[in-house]
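Table S2 (text version). Query chain:
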Amino acid sequence: MAFSIRSLLSTILVSAGFLLSTSSANALPVRSFTPINRYVVDGAVAEIIAATPDGMTVVYTNADDENIGLLDISKPTKPQVIGTVDVSAFGEPTSVAITPNGQYALVSVLDKTKKIANQKPGTLVFINLQTKSIVGQVQLAGIGPDSLAITPDGSKAIIAIEDEEDEDNLPGSRPGSVNFITLNYSNPNLSKVNNVALDLEGIDGVNYQKDPQPEFVAITKDGKTAAISIQENNAIAILDIASEKVIRIFSAGTSKHERADLKKDKKISFTQSFEGRREPDAIAFTADGKYIITANEGDTKKKTFGDGIYSGGRGWSIFDLEGNVVYDSGSSLEEEAVIRGHYPDGRSKKRGIEVEGVAVASFNNQEFAFVASERGSFLAVYDLSNIENPQLVSFLPTGMAPEGILPIPQRNLVLTANEKDGTIDTFRSSIFGFNPFKTNGEPDVVGTLENPYAALSGWTQVPGNPNKFYAVPDNAVAPSKIFSLELQGQKLVVTNSIELSKNGKAAKYDLEGITVAPNGGFWVVSEGDNRKGKERPNVLVKLNNQGEVEQEVFLPKDAASKIKRFGFEGVTTSADGSKVYVAIQREFKGEDKVRIAEYNVASKTWNYYFYSLDTDNKKGWVGNSEIARDIDGSFLVIERDNQGGKKGASNVIIKRIYRFSLDGVRPGETVKKQLVADLTKDYDWYEEKVEGLAVTNNGYWIISDNDGGTISTRALFIGR
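Corresponding structure-token output:
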């Protein structure tokens, strides 16, 4: 399966790419990067990614299936699978690089033995890309190889031997190291391995002096110098490639944040400050080899070492080769994530957005840094024209948890491999200063630091205004809120929010739907949970215009007892407001159809209609996530499976909008449904939680729940 941007917009970007590809000294500058494709890796995970010198073939690691995948991207909007290579005989692939002549892919593989004390040294595997076969292997010196890089002349490979030890049984007994491999292409098995130790004794600012755990390798463009991140130790090693010796090791130091959120409390509030050890993961050199760029993820298990300094810098930095800090992003990148709905409050006590990946490349003689957030699922692109003051030019939502970043400047492309959902995103450099894909049909959803948003699970149009909406978040946000949003050109902007209150106190619900009550105020629904220790009821709530609870309505006990989880998910009313309709997500216990509940406001009684769910996805469950009344009096529902996200984009089948009418249907009968839109087939929708539907005179707005900031919020307009 693959995600393809609409053809017209693809044409726009292709044209822009042509202009760049025919560039000269007078060519237009690159001003942004724009998405052109999301490829779904069938039944797999994509992590580290590399390309052949011509940029036409992409190779990626799939640790779960223990193989290497190959894609033909000669048509970047339509990648084609061209094979896989099984490396399971050696273990789990951790990194891949392609030789400068394009003949071989080199893969670092760690022993998959579960008990870490019994693991064996890793292996460097040679794969012939023409035959797609393993042609040789070399046993490495050390356990647990991680990042791999090849020198520009192809003579050597450098591998970080991390050896993530069992902290209870093996701390410091197997210190990590760096392998230099002199490559023998005529007989790969005879390649020579030199193991270089990393001595951290006497280096200020490291965490575990006797246990270096090198993480990531970078090599200068001239092939003379290598840099190795020693992540858990918050250090960087500089090595001379010719002599294969360590030049220096220095601490990555700390990053100070004047504004941050350090509380996991379902409330995004950048009112605190902290200092954090950078603990860099990925690193990269600038083209001139004078500077090192680091992704400051953090990785130590301790929150602090008793000094109040946190693990992780929550951003990125630039160093010179002496270890002096040239630039640090501070709180700025996390603030951008908040504004764009990509801040995961659930990680506030740990490492926030966890910046894991970084790459550097020049497009049309302009140098850019590409910075990826693992927990926020985005790629930020910075212009490095002023090395001391980089400028953000693009903020790009990615698939879930981008792991690898691959710039392909000769084709004006950059790719991310997204670990959690098994996708590969492709972006193209653009001469436009805006994103031409972000039209009124699919706008960016943005908030502010004062009005951050997350987990929008239901929304509805403001009556009489097709460009304004109300939305509610689920229980990832507390206290519960109603957000006001306004369509402003290419953006859907969160303009305001009000907190819900009950008896003068902040109200906390698991809100899943909202509709404007014809007689004033709102109806919202809160999903219940009858699991032991989590007991809360499904409840229909009437609010006034200020968000104050006026009434709570519960299901009769006999009906409520038949719902364990996945209850109230959407709400709408009849035109006159006399009846309220609630979509119940899953079947009652002992039933094979879901219910559409009807509440009579005057009599305070419930009736039920039945709805048959689709059954063409055998993985996970299927349910209704929304209900809305159309302008003709019929009803619309969102029917979806629970696939996508952590369960993988390749498992997505059911993301559909259906219509049904209650005309002539009596309570207890089954409604007849009619397909309105198949979001997967027609709109390339592989996000898991499509949950909101707002009706306007011109069409329908769909919105996804971003799972508390771990993925993107997607808003889509479908015309009538």
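Notes on Table S2: The first helix runs from residue 7 to 21. The mean pLDDT is 93.
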